[in-house]
Amino acid sequence: MFIEDHSVAAMAEALDTFVIGSPTSLIYATSGFMGLVADHLEAQARCLFCLEGERVVAVLPYLVKEGYLGKVYNSLAYYGSNGGVIQVERNDEVAGALVEFFYQLAEREGAVCATLISNPLEPFAVYERHSKYDCRDERIGQITHLPALANIDELMSSFSDPRPRNIRKAIKEGITIREGRSQADVDFLFTTHVKNITAIGGLSKQRSFFDAIPAFVDAQNWKIFVAEKDGQPVAALLLFYHNRTVEYFTPVIVESARSTQALALIVYTAMQDAIANGFANWNWGGTWLSQGGVYDFKKKWGTTDYPYYYYTRIFDASLKARSRQELLEGYQGFFLLPFSKLGA
Question: Which residue stretches, if any, does this entry annotate as coiled coil (predicted)?
Fold first, then answer.
């Protein structure tokens, strides 16, 4: 067994061929999505390949950001992108070797910190044993397991109130749903996203990320569902698709249209579409333990909880003396450490 470190661009076909063979793999580990994020964050997309002879037995994709403090390693980066070890046949010895190699590589290359983010659909015990973390941050992965096409009628009954009522109200309001990837759809998605996030004091994604999606991600791996009322867009949802899992990525709604429940109908329609196309998991993404309202919103869509963790090694203790704002600005999209550890 030996481990090789390669750029994703040079090994894109080998990476994608291996990753698609693991049923729990997510789009974040594909060459296209990694290329999108690396381009957007001005980072390097790389991957560790573990081989037995000439056969790849495991991979660990990661991104590196060279910033004003030095290098930061993430597997993976950008809005909770899950990373870590990917295997077709589980082997904890191999996985542990890759985890240890990742942190050793980061330290050898002079990184200030390195973080592995586990996959909610995979066991995390190997990271507990081999990461030797300085910090561990928890999230709750919430996933709706979609019924098979033959049982699609069971979908609505898997939701808790008020979701079925929300869906029926949107239909009664005359909301219609369509798919789209046009520039006008991207424009609506982005401008409404900025308004929604600004209204709650959050940090919105940048326009360049949305504009670059078609250049990096195959058309079959992303969609925008748009809700219209009287011929005008009132809500939209950006989804990414890979293997058996749909990623709920960017939902938006015009403030004056919230009472129409248009987003609920988008989700229901998109779930039906996913079932028809053979997808089994709808990943709502991670929820912080403190986000009770967000957790309850997702839970009513029939979700199952899957905890996952950020395992961080800190190689430069001065990192803790920095401010939250300078880390956010200097390493946009990268996880350095839990902000609760600043000043500790």
Answer: none
Segment 101-119 mean pLDDT: 98
- 296's CB contacts (< 8 A; 6+ apart) are none
- pLDDT of 344 strictly over 70: no
Strands laid side by side in the 303-314 sheet: 2-7, 44-52, 55-67, 70-75, 113-117, 303-314, 135-145, 281-287, 245-253, 232-242, 222-229, 176-180
Which pair of tokens denotes residue 266?
């988008």
Burial class (CB within 10 angstroms; exposed 0-12, middle 13-18, buried 19+) of 122: buried
What percentage of the chain has pLDDT greater than the value 90? 97
Q: Are 152 and 275 in contact (CB under 8 A)?
A: yes
Question: Is 0.90 topped by the overall pTM?
Answer: yes
Looking at residue 146, its amino acid is L
Question: For residue 164, what is the enclosing H or E element?
Answer: helix 163-172
Among residues of the chain, what percentage have pLDDT more than 70?
Answer: 100
Domains and CATH numbers, the chain: 2-139+308-341 (3.40.630.30), 147-279 (3.40.630.30)
Over the stretch 250-308, which tens digit does the pLDDT of each residue have? Answer: 999 999 999 999 999 999 999 999 999 999 999 999 999 999 999 999 999 999 999 99
DSSP code of 192? Answer: H
Q: Alpha-carbon distance 55 to 39, whole Å? A: 30
Using DSSP's 3-state secondary structure scheme, residue 145 falls into strand
Per-residue b/e over 212-247, b at no fewer than 16 CB within 10 Å? bbeebbeeebbbbbbbbbeeebbbbbbbbbbbbbbb
- From 53, 70, 35, select the one nearest 315 (Cα to Cα): 70
pLDDT tens, residue by residue, 189-243: 999 999 999 999 988 999 999 999 999 999 999 999 999 999 999 999 999 999 9
SS3 (DSSP) at 50: strand
Angstrom distance (rounded) from CA 173 to CA 165: 12
